[in-house]
């Protein structure tokens, strides 16, 4: 794509965003309902296109150019995926409007009101990989939050996403919303050109591998929201309860090892080495976890009875780099720490600031851990796997942010909004600054709180 | 400065930040009180250093290497500046703690609580120009909001800021806070090296010229918060009241023309050209404003009686570039527009998304303007000059953000904070994800709102 056509796409998106701001929010909900019906109407064609994408991908796998796990993610009609995607659009439609909410309201003077009101960010550029349903998910989130979006899916799902986009476009054309409100692009080259459009694009959301996220961060002046790593840690505090420790460590590691919120490192307080640790290790080994242990935690395991399953094959000494590796598999790095504060320091230095958990019976230690660990999520006696927009009650999410500017943690509709300040003078003469000040006859600001949850005009 | 010492400074700041998280917020307030006393104790030396800085700057002015307006800003003891600076520290100390506030709290399950709690961002790199008191202002804001900071002042105030920093450091050494909590650096080279420390520095806040802000944005991966331009617009709607129009336009332009929230462009609805516009123009001319007019607004003025002051000397035809120029002086670009929607489109395309105002008697038009104009502030019948942290009731500000990610508009303590999610299980067995789901015997999430404004543990 030429720089020129990238400018055109970005400019059209911004114009669509600006025009959409004057259209009632009910049109956005109408659009979501129409998207669902258009998708239903186009289902046979989409199913056929998805089949062709799958076959093409299968040939790539056979030629050794693609991983087979990717093919699974391409299949839009596996199990209840298609229905879940449609239901997701309805769920997003039913969520409360994230725009127009007042988070600060103050009467600055008689008849001078200030409101801070949530509003969309503007134009989103969303880049994701294999799963074609993400086009629909993200389009729904963008529309609901009032943002225009430019979407780029993986090249393996190109035929499927083309039809999904067509359904979205048809639906939009039946509303007052501009038809350029949601645009889809296909190639990496288009992405590169769009990354320079910081005049028109307000936020880039990459959903994919670490290398994709890093590449984007290094190649744009546009703010990027996305997590690069999910290096989550569970710390077994001196006062940890054994049953809780077993449950939480096993769940954090094994519930879904490929997820970014799965635990990759276990920190064991040294006082637990001969008490609680062997039983946690046994449970992990029974679950098929490979343990990469430091010397103290390893030597305890080497003295366990040989009847422990997997003991001889699934316990190995750790290497330094294991503690900065996102295993994304049934592998867990284990480190012994002498204290709570050492655990906090370790996590701040090594974790990816995603989600870290403590298992403890001490309220004081829980408080210290939650204050001291500088991550988007700090948990007490709960599995790191809870880090998720749905589980948090946000309905849905565009991802989990490990950045600390703007949205942090699971990003729902609220994370796709910013705010603006709206000021209204109801005074007969209007309000001017020159009347305020410290001199004689000058007015003072009132700064009186207004109770309002929505803008009154 | 070598890359190595930049790393050391940044690393020390991050370590100081992390250590500070475990220290009670009352220490931060104590630090602010101590900073005030240390500054008072060091006043004679600071006054002397400031004198030397001023003399050196004066010589630079005489040699034509420095603008004389800068010298004025260097003087820390002019009028009540010194006392105002000390009072500012006390004001910040007295503001409510922006950290530890709960903005979302939900019971996800029996005994499983989720809290979204405000917390500091981490390490701030703040770069500013001439005025030495900014060191103290920003240090106070950083300390109050719990952020570590690296501060870089202008080289012209180097002797003054060195002593101000010394007072801050001495004060910190009398608290439990780490003494590297606030660090000061002196040269542009140090800034360049620090801009690559994205591992340790979380946010860059440039306060200075547009070229400084742009340079920084182009040279770092660290998020940058700062406004580049203040191109504010006032639109006189068809239904504008004449007295309000005169007051608001004159105040927006003349109250403090060098400020970023001063109006630079006036949009006049074409129906007002022969009614309201001549009187607005007369008032502006009386105030000494230079009017750069498009053809319609110009020809009306050319037919005014010659008795209008400045008419022959202070009215000129505009050039296209005048509409994208931040005059920062008594100069105003004037453009005729055919409609409200044309005004909105013009502002979205030309303004810097800072603050834009409408003068109108129509509530419907006010609503359209506030919805349609994509700026941090949209005002109805109020001067653009109200865009200011103090006037908004934030106590103080670090600047006005025209970005739309994170903080927007005047940035007070809240804008220096992010949040983290804290989860606590009070269940006897702790909470794991595997128990939740749609299958038989699986738990469902409750997502029941908890009413809490501060973290209960």
Automatic annotation (TrEMBL), chains A, B:
Transmembrane segments: none
Pathway participation: Amino-acid biosynthesis; L-proline biosynthesis; L-glutamate 5-semialdehyde from L-glutamate: step 2/2
Chain ranges of the Aldehyde dehydrogenase domain: 2-283
One Pfam family cited in the UniProt record for this chain: Aldedh
CDD domains for this protein: ALDH_F18-19_ProA-GPR
EC number: 1.2.1.41
Swiss-Prot/TrEMBL GO biological process terms: amino acid biosynthetic process
Reaction catalyzed: L-glutamate 5-semialdehyde + phosphate + NADP(+) = L-glutamyl 5-phosphate + NADPH + H(+)
Xref: InterPro entries: Ald_DH/histidinol_DH, Ald_DH_C, Ald_DH_N, Aldehyde_DH_dom, G-glutamylP_reductase_CS, Glu-5-SA_DH, GPR_dom
Gene3D superfamilies to which the protein is assigned, alphabetical: Aldehyde Dehydrogenase, Chain A, domain 1, Aldehyde Dehydrogenase, Chain A, domain 2
Keyword terms: Amino-acid biosynthesis, NADP, Oxidoreductase, Proline biosynthesis
Enzyme class per UniProt: oxidoreductase
Gene Ontology MF terms: glutamate-5-semialdehyde dehydrogenase activity; NADP binding
Similarity comment: Belongs to the gamma-glutamyl phosphate reductase family.
Purpose: Catalyzes the NADPH dependent reduction of L-gamma-glutamyl 5-phosphate into L-glutamate 5-semialdehyde and phosphate. The product spontaneously undergoes cyclization to form 1-pyrroline-5-carboxylate.
The protein, known as: glutamate-5-semialdehyde dehydrogenase
Source organism of the structure: Sanghuangporus baumii
């Amino acid at each position: 794509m030429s720089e020129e056509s990238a400018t055109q796409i970005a400019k059209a998106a911004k114009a669509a965003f600006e025009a959409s701001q004057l259209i009632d929010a009910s049109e956005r909900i109408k659009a979501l309902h129409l998207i669902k019906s258009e998708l239903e109407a186009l289902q046979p064609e989409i199913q056929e296109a998805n089949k062709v994408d799958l076959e093409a991908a299968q040939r790539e796998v056979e030629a050794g150019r693609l991983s087979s796990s990717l093919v699974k993610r391409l299949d839009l009609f596996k199990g209840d995926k298609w229905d879940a995607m449609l239901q997701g659009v309805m769920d997003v439609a039913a969520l409360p409007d994230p725009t127009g909410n007042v988070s600060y309201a103050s009467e600055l003077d008689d008849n001078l009101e200030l409101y801070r009101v949530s509003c969309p960010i503007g134009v989103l550029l969303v880049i994701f990989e294999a799963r074609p349903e993400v086009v629909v998910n993200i389009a729904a989130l963008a529309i609901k939050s009032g943002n225009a979006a430019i979407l780029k899916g993986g090249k393996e799902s190109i035929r499927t996403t083309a039809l999904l986009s067509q359904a979205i476009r048809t639906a939009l054309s039946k509303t007052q919303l501009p038809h350029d409100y949601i645009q889809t692009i296909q190639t990496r080259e288009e992405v590169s050109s769009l990354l320079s459009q910081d005049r028109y694009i307000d936020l880039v959301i990459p959903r994919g591998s670490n290398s994709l996220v890093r590449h984007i961060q290094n190649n744009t002046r546009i703010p990027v929201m996305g997590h690069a790593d999910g290096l989550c840690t569970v710390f077994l505090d001196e006062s940890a309860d054994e049953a809780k420790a077993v449950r939480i460590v096993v769940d954090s590691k094994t519930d879904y090892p490929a997820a970014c919120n799965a635990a990759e490192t276990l920190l064991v307080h040294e006082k637990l080495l001969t008490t609680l640790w062997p039983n946690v290790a046994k449970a992990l080994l029974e679950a098929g976890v490979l343990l990469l242990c430091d010397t103290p935690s390893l030597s305890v395991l080497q003295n366990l009875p040989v009847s422990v399953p997997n003991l001889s094959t699934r316990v190995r000494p750790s290497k330094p780099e294991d503690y900065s590796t996102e295993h994304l598999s049934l592998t867990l790095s284990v480190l012994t720490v002498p204290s709570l504060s050492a655990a906090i320091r370790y996590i701040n230095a090594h974790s990816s600031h995603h989600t870290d958990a403590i298992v403890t019976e001490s309220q004081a230690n829980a408080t210290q851990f939650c204050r001291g660990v500088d991550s988007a999520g700090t948990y007490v006696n709960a599995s790191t796997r809870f880090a998720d927009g749905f589980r948090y009650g946000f309905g849905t999410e565009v991802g989990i942010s490990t950045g600390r500017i703007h949205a942090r943690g699971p990003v729902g509709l609220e994370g796709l909004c910013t705010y603006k300040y709206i000021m209204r003078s109801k005074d007969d003469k209007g309000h001017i600054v020159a009347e305020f000040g410290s001199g004689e006859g000058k007015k003072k600001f009132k700064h009186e709180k207004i109770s309002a949850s929505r803008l009154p005009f």
